[in-house]
Amino acid sequence: MKVLRVGIGLAIVFVASWAMAQVATDRRRSGYQDMGEALQKMQDDDTANPGMLFVQLGGQSWAKKAGTADKSCADCHGAATTSMKGMAARYPAISKGGDTPLDLEGRINLCRTENQKAERLPPENRELLALLAYVAHQSRGMPIAPPADPRLAAFRDQGAAIYRRRQGQLNLSCAICHDDNAGKKLAGVTIPEAHPTGYPIYRLEWQGLGSLKRRLRNCLVGIRAEAYAYDAPEYVMLELFLMDRARGMSLESPGVRP
């Protein structure tokens, strides 16, 4: 028994040491860490974070009946605090009966059309963003954990290829900015590593909440490339890759950014 206890003790020490080593070698930075103290405090304080207004609106929409089925999200899923916990950390994913991945916005709209018999909410629609913020908020503080679904591999690889592909008149790729030059300054602003930890985010530049798609479109326009249509699969592929790249990092939604 003494030998067994010693063996167990050594195993615990080994696992703890391995975990500490993983933390020590993980030097990834959320955009939160690149912000000034004032903006960090704004995000951390729920009474000052403007994204929380959308979370509150999302809670109202969660309980509101919609469509010809006259159902609310709560009618099917119950309390979001339990049923949606961890959901945002696992998306994009392939829904039951589907064959292509959906982001969280797509999943919300699928619920609307199939279960509520309601119309899809358009991109960047206030109600859609509010529902997205409300659902994502239930996973705040949880580690990003993409699903181990082998069907996602090909889509993720396509997202990685888009991330590394040079585009636009400036002939730049996402990787050139957010891998090769992350942490450097561009027009006085720190170039982030582009981890999707805070979406949907409230950007002071936008004076409103926006999705990851909106941010990706901003980047494409910034490099003088033609932005994909909002319903283009390229955005979901990119998000699949970015979420895998940020695996294990904590979700912050709703984030605040300059």
Keywords:
258 residues, mainly alpha, Cytochrome Bc1 Complex, Chain D, domain 2, 2 domains, 3-stranded mixed β-sheet, two-stranded antiparallel sheet, 11 helices, 5 strands, 47% helix
What does this structure look like?
The longest helix is centred in the first third of the chain and has 24 residues, at about 1-25. The chain has helices at about 1-25, 35-45, 50-65, 75, 80-85, 105-115, 125-135, 155-165, 175-180, 210-220, 235-245, and strands at about 185, 190, 200-205, 210, 255. Helix 3 crosses helix 7 (about 125-135), helix 6 (about 105-115) crosses helix 7 (about 125-135) and helix 8 crosses helix 11 (about 235-245). The model is unreliable at about 5-25 (pLDDT under 50). It is globular. It has 11 helices and 5 strands; from the N terminus they run αααααααααββββααβ.
| CATH class descriptor of the largest domain | Mainly Alpha
Which value, in Å, is the CA radius of gyration? 20 Å
Reported CATH architecture of the largest domain? Orthogonal Bundle
Largest sheet: 3 strands, mixed
Runs in which pLDDT lies below 50 for 5 or more consecutive residues are 6-24
| Relative strand content | 5-15%
Which term fits the overall shape?
A: globular
Query: CATH superfamily name of the largest domain?
Result: Cytochrome c-like domain
Q: Biggest sheet: strands side by side, in what order?
A: 4-3-5
The SS-based structural class is mainly alpha
- Measured distance between first and last alpha carbons: 59 Å
Topology order in helix (H) and strand (E) letters: HHHHHHHHHEEEEHHE
- If you average the pLDDT, what whole number results? 92
